[in-house]
Amino acid sequence: MLSDTCLVLGGAASGKSAFAENLVERQDAPLVYIASAQAWDAEMRAKIDTHVARRGPRWRTVEAPLDAAAELARLVPGEICLFDCATMWLSNHLLAENDLEAEQARLLAAIRDCAARLVIVSNEVGFGIVPDNALARRFREAQGRLNIVLAREAGLVVQVIAGLPQVLKGELP
Fold first, then answer.
1. Catalytic: 93?
2. DSSP state of 46
3. Model confidence over 2-11: pLDDT tens digits?
């Protein structure tokens, strides 16, 4: 178990990213943000810009839509990193038709070896109905498996619903 790792789960627009940012900003440490989102259209660009503005200049942002593992390996002791989010990272690999098992194994190894404290944001996708197409079902299954492993490994797991954090495992600092 990785006691220096926190997993923040929640649905879309649940407040999970804002909660995770607040959790990280309370720490007296250099702040790193590993961003997995890609701006494919104006709406996504606006969402990314809103997140960057909300974080402010204290954060060092690294864009890593596919290679979060390499960025995690570059972190040093004393830093605290927010990886937002595992869901977009997984979607990027799925759409690129990469080997999801191999990429997940690579990411998990990087998380285990990470020298910095780490907060990972991920979407909980298990509350909805069974998707009507194969790609969406494949994504939902892969995301569920990834979340299970991340939650098992993390020392702290928090689910955010309507902006309200619920601790599922561990204790908030």
1. no
2. H
3. 568 999 999 9
Sheet with 154-161: strands ordered across: 59-63, 31-35, 80-84, 117-123, 2-10, 154-161, 164-169
Task: Check 6, 31, 51, 90 and give the catalytic one.
Answer: 51
Q: Strand 154-161 vs strand 164-169: parallel, antiparallel, or unpaired?
A: antiparallel
Full DSSP string of 123-159: E--TTSPPPSSHHHHHHHHHHHHHHHHHHHHEEEEEE
Report if pTM > 0.90: yes
Look at domain 2-169 and name its CATH class: alpha beta
The pLDDT tens digits for 74-94 are: 999 999 999 999 999 999 999
Domain ranges of the chain: 2-169
Tracing tokens 């960025």 back to the chain, one arrives at 71
